[in-house]
Amino acid sequence: MDRKINMPLSKEDALSLEYGDYVYLSGVIYTARDAAHKRMYDALNENAPLPIDIKGQTIYYMGPSPAREGRPIGSAGPTTASRMDKYAPQLMDLGLIGMIGKGKRTSAVKDAIVRNGAVYFAAVGGAGALLSKCITKSEVVAYDDLGTEAIRKLEVKDFPVIVVIDSKGRDLYEESQKQYREE
Predict the structure, then answer these.
(1) pLDDT for the residue 182
(2) Which helix (H) or strand (E) segment is 41 a member of?
């Protein structure tokens, strides 16, 4: 089913999504990759505040290339989500409701998705140049010294994603393989 959703993602929208749904996101999402996740993890372990209010937000696991003239951002494809699996459950327990990346997630992440009524989306890998056309604004909001791994606030318009793991823990990758397995 195709859906258009305004961001930030509401709890009601997150709970209504089902694995396999095609979704077009419009509004604000944040980017963060390995280095930014490590810094947030360290901050939490030191009882320091996070640089952004994570509650109700969606993080896109993406490190952009430099913007060409007249564009807010360069190529903006997803990175492998499993690299953030060590950090994702804690962030979801603090209110993170959505994640965008590519690839499978661990059982600990799936458990946190179910526990928190969150959702994991996939963006198409290798399509970073096309995805960047859906980004209307990009602004570094934390960890500027990390360069492309800094946390960015993105404004997106009809950003295409697919629900891979829904709030019930159903996984598109696992479910789609079942039809090809022998019983």
Answers:
(1) 59
(2) helix 34-45
